[in-house]
Structure of Carboxymuconolactone decarboxylase family protein:
Amino acid sequence: MSHFPLFEKDNAPKDSVEWLEKAEQNFGLIPNVEKVMALSPQLLAGYTFMWDGFNTSSLDEQERQVVYMTANFENECNYCVPWHTILAEQSGLSKDDIEALRGGGKLSDAKQNALSEFTRRMIANRGKVSQMQLQEFFDAGYNDQQALEVILALSVKLISNYTNSIAGTPLDKEASHNRWSKPLIEEKSE
Protein backbone atom coordinates (compact mmCIF):
# COMPACT_ATOMS: atom_id res chain seq x y z
CA MET A 1 0.00 0.00 0.00
CA SER A 2 1.39 3.38 -1.00
CA HIS A 3 2.04 6.01 1.61
CA PHE A 4 1.78 8.82 -0.97
CA PRO A 5 -1.38 10.85 -0.27
CA LEU A 6 -3.99 11.78 -2.85
CA PHE A 7 -4.63 15.49 -2.38
CA GLU A 8 -7.80 17.37 -3.24
CA LYS A 9 -7.98 21.12 -3.84
CA ASP A 10 -9.16 21.69 -0.25
CA ASN A 11 -6.23 19.93 1.45
CA ALA A 12 -3.38 20.25 -1.06
CA PRO A 13 -0.33 22.43 -0.46
CA LYS A 14 -1.48 25.93 -1.43
CA ASP A 15 1.00 26.22 -4.32
CA SER A 16 -0.53 23.11 -5.90
CA VAL A 17 -4.13 24.28 -5.92
CA GLU A 18 -3.90 26.29 -9.16
CA TRP A 19 -2.30 23.29 -10.91
CA LEU A 20 -5.00 20.93 -9.64
CA GLU A 21 -7.57 23.39 -10.99
CA LYS A 22 -5.75 23.37 -14.34
CA ALA A 23 -5.88 19.55 -14.39
CA GLU A 24 -9.59 19.71 -13.67
CA GLN A 25 -10.03 22.16 -16.58
CA ASN A 26 -8.01 19.89 -18.90
CA PHE A 27 -9.71 16.60 -18.00
CA GLY A 28 -13.03 17.45 -16.35
CA LEU A 29 -11.72 15.87 -13.16
CA ILE A 30 -8.46 15.71 -11.22
CA PRO A 31 -6.74 12.42 -12.09
CA ASN A 32 -5.08 10.58 -9.23
CA VAL A 33 -1.61 11.14 -10.69
CA GLU A 34 -2.02 14.90 -10.30
CA LYS A 35 -3.39 14.33 -6.79
CA VAL A 36 -0.16 12.48 -5.94
CA MET A 37 2.05 15.08 -7.63
CA ALA A 38 0.38 17.83 -5.59
CA LEU A 39 2.66 16.93 -2.67
CA SER A 40 5.39 18.64 -4.72
CA PRO A 41 3.95 21.83 -6.22
CA GLN A 42 7.08 22.22 -8.34
CA LEU A 43 6.68 18.75 -9.86
CA LEU A 44 2.99 19.29 -10.57
CA ALA A 45 3.66 22.73 -12.09
CA GLY A 46 6.45 21.40 -14.32
CA TYR A 47 4.38 18.42 -15.43
CA THR A 48 1.34 20.56 -16.26
CA PHE A 49 3.42 23.17 -18.11
CA MET A 50 5.17 20.52 -20.23
CA TRP A 51 1.90 18.64 -20.87
CA ASP A 52 0.32 21.84 -22.18
CA GLY A 53 3.43 22.59 -24.24
CA PHE A 54 3.41 19.19 -25.92
CA ASN A 55 -0.29 19.64 -26.72
CA THR A 56 0.68 22.67 -28.83
CA SER A 57 3.59 20.96 -30.59
CA SER A 58 3.76 20.36 -34.34
CA LEU A 59 2.81 16.68 -33.86
CA ASP A 60 -0.88 16.06 -34.39
CA GLU A 61 -3.18 14.59 -31.75
CA GLN A 62 -2.76 11.00 -32.96
CA GLU A 63 1.02 11.34 -33.17
CA ARG A 64 1.15 12.74 -29.64
CA GLN A 65 -0.74 9.70 -28.39
CA VAL A 66 1.60 7.38 -30.32
CA VAL A 67 4.56 8.90 -28.47
CA TYR A 68 2.81 8.84 -25.09
CA MET A 69 1.50 5.28 -25.47
CA THR A 70 4.88 4.00 -26.64
CA ALA A 71 6.58 5.58 -23.62
CA ASN A 72 3.91 4.25 -21.27
CA PHE A 73 4.42 0.75 -22.68
CA GLU A 74 8.20 0.89 -22.48
CA ASN A 75 8.11 2.32 -18.94
CA GLU A 76 5.44 -0.22 -17.93
CA CYS A 77 3.04 2.37 -16.56
CA ASN A 78 -0.08 0.46 -15.50
CA TYR A 79 -1.69 3.79 -14.60
CA CYS A 80 -0.97 5.77 -17.79
CA VAL A 81 -1.78 3.13 -20.42
CA PRO A 82 -5.48 2.99 -19.46
CA TRP A 83 -5.83 6.78 -19.50
CA HIS A 84 -3.95 7.18 -22.78
CA THR A 85 -6.07 4.41 -24.29
CA ILE A 86 -9.02 6.76 -23.76
CA LEU A 87 -7.08 9.72 -25.20
CA ALA A 88 -5.94 7.62 -28.18
CA GLU A 89 -9.55 6.65 -28.86
CA GLN A 90 -10.56 10.32 -28.69
CA SER A 91 -7.76 11.18 -31.15
CA GLY A 92 -9.23 8.82 -33.74
CA LEU A 93 -6.55 6.13 -33.68
CA SER A 94 -8.00 2.82 -34.81
CA LYS A 95 -8.79 0.08 -32.30
CA ASP A 96 -6.15 -2.12 -33.97
CA ASP A 97 -3.48 0.56 -33.62
CA ILE A 98 -4.43 1.21 -30.01
CA GLU A 99 -4.14 -2.51 -29.28
CA ALA A 100 -0.76 -2.54 -31.08
CA LEU A 101 0.42 0.30 -28.83
CA ARG A 102 -0.88 -1.50 -25.73
CA GLY A 103 1.01 -4.61 -26.84
CA GLY A 104 4.24 -3.08 -28.10
CA GLY A 105 3.41 -3.98 -31.68
CA LYS A 106 3.59 -2.39 -35.10
CA LEU A 107 1.19 0.33 -36.23
CA SER A 108 -0.70 0.18 -39.54
CA ASP A 109 0.46 3.66 -40.63
CA ALA A 110 4.14 3.59 -41.64
CA LYS A 111 4.82 7.17 -40.54
CA GLN A 112 3.22 6.68 -37.13
CA ASN A 113 5.06 3.39 -36.76
CA ALA A 114 8.37 5.17 -37.43
CA LEU A 115 7.45 7.68 -34.73
CA SER A 116 6.74 4.88 -32.27
CA GLU A 117 9.98 3.13 -33.17
CA PHE A 118 12.00 6.34 -32.77
CA THR A 119 10.37 6.90 -29.37
CA ARG A 120 11.14 3.32 -28.33
CA ARG A 121 14.77 3.68 -29.42
CA MET A 122 15.14 7.00 -27.57
CA ILE A 123 14.00 5.31 -24.36
CA ALA A 124 16.01 2.12 -24.83
CA ASN A 125 19.21 3.99 -25.66
CA ARG A 126 18.74 6.88 -23.22
CA GLY A 127 18.56 9.36 -26.09
CA LYS A 128 21.62 8.04 -27.89
CA VAL A 129 20.10 6.92 -31.17
CA SER A 130 22.40 6.27 -34.10
CA GLN A 131 22.58 8.59 -37.10
CA MET A 132 20.96 5.83 -39.15
CA GLN A 133 18.04 5.58 -36.69
CA LEU A 134 17.64 9.35 -36.68
CA GLN A 135 17.70 9.36 -40.50
CA GLU A 136 14.97 6.69 -40.55
CA PHE A 137 12.84 9.04 -38.44
CA PHE A 138 13.49 11.90 -40.89
CA ASP A 139 12.90 9.65 -43.93
CA ALA A 140 9.45 8.80 -42.52
CA GLY A 141 8.52 12.49 -42.83
CA TYR A 142 9.53 13.98 -39.48
CA ASN A 143 11.94 16.86 -38.88
CA ASP A 144 14.42 18.25 -36.34
CA GLN A 145 11.74 20.14 -34.42
CA GLN A 146 9.65 17.00 -34.06
CA ALA A 147 12.65 15.02 -32.79
CA LEU A 148 12.97 17.63 -30.04
CA GLU A 149 9.22 17.46 -29.37
CA VAL A 150 9.56 13.71 -28.77
CA ILE A 151 12.09 14.61 -26.08
CA LEU A 152 9.53 16.96 -24.53
CA ALA A 153 6.94 14.16 -24.49
CA LEU A 154 9.44 11.76 -22.95
CA SER A 155 10.07 14.33 -20.22
CA VAL A 156 6.34 14.49 -19.51
CA LYS A 157 6.16 10.71 -19.41
CA LEU A 158 9.24 10.41 -17.20
CA ILE A 159 7.45 12.55 -14.61
CA SER A 160 4.14 10.68 -14.72
CA ASN A 161 5.48 7.16 -15.28
CA TYR A 162 8.07 7.45 -12.51
CA THR A 163 5.61 9.11 -10.12
CA ASN A 164 3.12 6.28 -10.67
CA SER A 165 5.86 3.70 -10.25
CA ILE A 166 7.01 4.87 -6.84
CA ALA A 167 3.60 5.98 -5.59
CA GLY A 168 1.57 3.01 -6.81
CA THR A 169 -1.04 5.52 -7.95
CA PRO A 170 -4.49 3.90 -7.87
CA LEU A 171 -6.26 3.85 -11.21
CA ASP A 172 -9.25 6.20 -11.38
CA LYS A 173 -12.64 4.54 -11.89
CA GLU A 174 -13.04 6.52 -15.15
CA ALA A 175 -10.19 4.52 -16.73
CA SER A 176 -10.64 1.19 -14.93
CA HIS A 177 -12.32 -0.44 -17.95
CA ASN A 178 -8.94 -0.18 -19.75
CA ARG A 179 -6.79 -1.87 -17.06
CA TRP A 180 -3.44 -2.95 -18.40
CA SER A 181 -0.38 -5.02 -17.54
CA LYS A 182 2.64 -5.20 -19.80
CA PRO A 183 2.43 -8.38 -21.87
CA LEU A 184 5.36 -10.72 -22.11
CA ILE A 185 6.82 -10.34 -25.57
CA GLU A 186 9.89 -11.81 -27.21
CA GLU A 187 12.82 -9.44 -27.43
CA LYS A 188 13.34 -7.95 -30.89
CA SER A 189 16.85 -7.67 -32.22
CA GLU A 190 17.85 -4.33 -33.70
Q: What stands out?
A: The first helix runs from residue 14 to 27. The chain has nine helices and no strands.
